[in-house]
Amino acid sequence: MKKVFLILVLLAIMPLAYGFAAFMDEQQWVNWGNKALVESYDPSGEPNIIKWEIMLTTDHFIRLRKTYQQGNQEYYSFNIKRLNSLNYLPGNDLTDTLQVQTKTDDIIIQTYNDPAGDLDSMATTLNIPVKKLVPGRLDSLKQGLSFLRMKGM
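Predicted structure:
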């Protein structure tokens, strides 16, 4: 009897735990992705940052802008349809890294007001410092980005 009850409970919970993606549309995933990225981003590893902005746009780009005390800026941008992998790398007690890898050099990097000169370059990997993420939030972010990546193809 216990076994049957346990199986019924698990069958009732599984659609809620794993199937909510079917109930979310594209805009809801964009909103969720923005919320997860903004709440997770951790600029504390770079003490010279005075302002930052990270967003997932409706046209499926992830954009990160950092403004430093000296006034120079770094800007990163890539379309998630070029996303190859999203890895969570453990760091110290408070901060970890969300490592984004694209298929080729698909991440645009631009610098502004840099004393060494403004530069435009491309990269395959972007390391985003994040606060400790619970596995459920990380899985949900991956699921949302995967949904949007497939939608954009």
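Summary: The helical segments are 2-18, 26-40, 135-151.
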